[in-house]
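Justification of resources, computational component.

The compute hours requested in this renewal are based largely on the per-chain cost of generating structure records like the one below. Each record pairs the submitted sequence with a full structure-token output. That output is archived, and it is also reused by downstream analysis tasks.
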Amino acid sequence: MTVTTARRQTRTVPIGAITVGGDSPIVVQSMCATRTIDIDATVAQTHQLAEAGAGIVRIALDSEKEVAALKAIREQTPGITLSVDLQENYKIADKVAPYVDKIRYNPGHLHHIEKSKTIVDKVRWLAAVARDHNLAIRIGVNCGSVAPEFLAKYPGDQLAALVESAAYHCDLMDEIGFDRFVVSLKDSDPLKVLEANRRFAARRPDVPLHLGVTEAGLPPDGIIKTRLAFEKLLAEGIGETIRVSLTLPNERKHEEVVVGHRIIEDVRAGRFISVPNFGAGLNIISCPSCSRVENEKFVELAQEVKELTAYAANHKITIAVMGCRVNGPGETDDADLGVWCGPTTVNLKRKSQKLGNFKYDEVLPRLKAEVDQLIAERT
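The structure output for this chain reads:
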């Protein structure tokens, strides 16, 4: 593979103590998997990630009740650049703004709240909050939560919907006069990540890109999926900040950062992986553990699903194991089989059809039966 002699010359975006884009080094970032209301654990993990080399540490908030915890976390993490993930609750942006350096919103979630307000008004308000508090913004578009209006506009072409949604929100920012933003276009399929980011980079060469393969899953497969996308994009000069999303227990969360730096170093040195026929058989998608996970057994369950289904390695079946209600329902719709985890039970699905709720220690036999049935139907 040929490595480009120079990276894209995007605009620069200051984020706390760092800068993304332009001639700045590629920034590796990660996300806390601890519960945000557990202040001590989140502070410890923030330091853990920063010490491993994370230039940005992201924390998720679900409600205004967690703002006080975020304030305490900020007070104990001076000098660390913090980003907050608003997910489905963009309305708390002004409450969290004093304690972070960047806010991330998902265009696909803006329609859920305050339906009487237009998307334009909501984005205008978010930009005003960011401007007033000297913050950057990430426009984060995900395959499993593309805004309904773009899915309707590009039926059967999720990739186009993904790119056009991101481009539309960039246009809104341009109209508003706010340029301190980066964009991410994520999918669990590395080939789609590759194509989406290439299309967007050609469309908006000025905008810094945050690269990620969402729900890459357990190592080592999750690392391979990530490298398949990142290596080509970075070699083409595309990507100003990266996040490796792996399903890991809390004490190993910093490995995401270590892997990210290793990928950057390997690309610079011209070292690339070659995995013939990777992805041709069983594909297990699992999200990175984060503060939205409602039961820590999720990570253990993902590992058990991998071990249980090893016998189906040569069958082209996709199984999604998701840890929360935010990404779980949408991300599992596209999988042949999906489980998304609640506080005490696991939702089992076949495509978008719900098969029932099961206790954590009861779901595996039923999942195996569904895998066997799929194999029988396709043989």
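The chain has a mean pLDDT of 92. The CA atoms of residues 236 and 254 lie 27 Å apart.
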